[in-house]
Amino acid sequence: MAEHNALLCPALDKVAGEEFLQKAFQIMLEEGVRKGMDASEKVCDWKEPEELQQILDLDLKDGGEPQERLLDRCRDVIRYSVKTCHPRFFNQLFSGLDPHALAGRLITEMLNTSQYTYEIAPVFVLMEEVVLKKLRELIGWEEGDGLFSPGGSISNMYAMNVARYHRFPDCKQKGNWAIPKLAVFTSQECHYSIQKGAAFLGIGTDNIYLVAVDEKGKMIPADLEKKINQAKSERAFPFFVNATCGTTVLGAFDPVAEIAEVCARHKIWLHVDAAWGGSALLSQRHRHLLNGVERADSVAWNPHKMLMTGLQCSAFLLRDNSGLLQRCHCAEATYLFQTDKFYNRAYDRGDQTIQCGRKVDCFKLWLMWKANGTRGLEQRVDRAFAMTRYLADEIKKREGFQLVIEPEFINLCFWYVPPSLRGKEGCTDYCLRLGKVAPMIKERMMKKGSMMVSYQPLGNRVNFFRQVVTNPAVTREDLDFFLDEIERLGRDL
C-alpha cells in the first residue's frame, strides 16, 4: 500500500531543484565567468593530487547531502579547476568564453536531446544542416554532406572510414581481409589522430607513410608522390591522403592545391585536417592559407578552437552529395528509424553516423554566429593574427627570447634563454640545459597561478614554448605580462 501511495506524487522536489539551480547558476556566473575572466585572479589554484583529493572529498556515499554542502562543492570544483576563459590561459588550441555560445551549451544540456531523428530534435536537425551548409560554402562547395562529431580526431576517423568505403564498399560487410592492404599518407607533422584512426579501423599504423616536411613544417608534394610510388611497389593500395591545415605545434599549412594535383593523378581520396586552421576561411585576409581546400573530398574543422564555441564542436564535411555517408554507416535499426513514420524520414539523419546518441553541437555555433555575424567572426580571427604578430615583434626586441620559426598562423613558438645560458650556444651541454628551462618555468607559473602556456620538443629542437591567442578578451597588456612573467620566472635558471 505504501509503495502504491508513493506513486501518487512526484519523486522529485521541483521547488527545491529550481532553488538549487538558481543558486548554482549564480555561483557559475560569479566564480566561473566573472572571476574566471578576471586577469587579477589565478588561472589555476594548483594543488597536488593527494591534497586535492582530500579537499574535494570525492568518495560517493550511501546518503545524500544538503543543498548548501552541494553548493560548496560546486564552488570548490570551479575554484580548483583551470580557467580556460582566463585572458592569461595560452595552454591549448582553445581558450576564452563566448557568452552566446555558453548560453547555447546550457540550453542544449537542459533540453537533453539527441541529434538522431527529427521527432526527438526537430529544431536541431534543421539547424545542423544550415550550419554545415554555411561551413561548406566557406570551403567553396555548392553542395555536399556532413555532420558534427565529438572532436577532430573522430572527424579524421570518419574521413578515413568513408574513403575506404568509397573505394571498397564490400569492406562494410566482408571486412578488411576482403580488400587489399591499404596505404595512408600524411605528413610528419600531422595530428596523432591519424595514427589512432588507422589503428582503430584495422588499417594498421605500419601502413601509414609519413611524408617529409620542409623547414616550415609543410608537407613536400614531391615526397608525397615518391611515397605513393613506394607504397605501390610494396603492393599496398594508396587510398587516403591527409593534408593538414594548421599543424598542432608549428601551425603549418600544407600546400593543398599541389597535394590535390598528386591525389588527382593517382585517384586518391584527399582529406584536409583543418581542425585547427579551418577558421582562417572566415578571413578575407588570411583564407589564402587554405588555397586549394575546395578540391578536397572531405574536411575536418573545429569551431571550438579558434571561434570559441566551447568543447566540443567539430564538423566533418564531405563534398559528396550522393548519400555516401549514409551508405557507409547505416544499420537501419527499425526501432529508431521506422519506415512508416508520419513525416519525411529524410530528416532522420542519425544513421549517417557511427554513434546512436549524439549531442547537439550545432546550436552553440549557430547562436554565436547569429550574435556576431560572419563579419564579427572574421574580426575575431583577424584579431588573433594581429595579437600573434604583435607578440612575435616584441619577442624580437627582447634579449633572451628566440623564435623557433616565423609564425604563419597563430602558433607562436619560441625559446626563453636565461642569462646563465646566453652566449654559451657552443657548449656541449647547451641544448640539454636549454631543454630544461621551459618545463621549470611552466612548473613555476602553474604553482603561482599567474598563467598557463604549453611547451614541447619537436624533432631535434629541445623544449620550447608554444603560445596561442584565441581569446578576444586578451589585450596587449596581457601579452606584455606574458613576456615579463616568463622573464621573472626564468631569470635565475
TrEMBL record:
A molecular-function term among this protein's GO annotations: pyridoxal phosphate binding
Pfam families on file: Pyridoxal_deC
Single Gene Ontology BP annotation: taurine biosynthetic process
Database matches in Gene3D superfamilies: 3.90.1150.170, Type I PLP-dependent aspartate aminotransferase-like (Major domain)
UniProt modified residues of type N6-(pyridoxal phosphate)lysine: 305
GO cellular component: cytoplasm
Known cofactor(s): pyridoxal 5'-phosphate
UniProt xrefs under CDD domains: DOPA_deC_like (cd06450)
Keywords: Decarboxylase, Lyase, Pyridoxal phosphate
UniProt keyword annotation of ATP-binding present: no
Highest taxon of source: Eukaryota
PANTHER family per record: CYSTEINE SULFINIC ACID DECARBOXYLASE, GLUTAMATE DECARBOXYLASE-RELATED
Summary of subunit composition and partner proteins: Homodimer.
Record family assignment: Belongs to the group II decarboxylase family.
Name under which the protein is recorded: Cysteine sulfinic acid decarboxylase
Source lineage: Eukaryota, Metazoa, Chordata, Craniata, Vertebrata
Protein encoded by which gene: CSAD
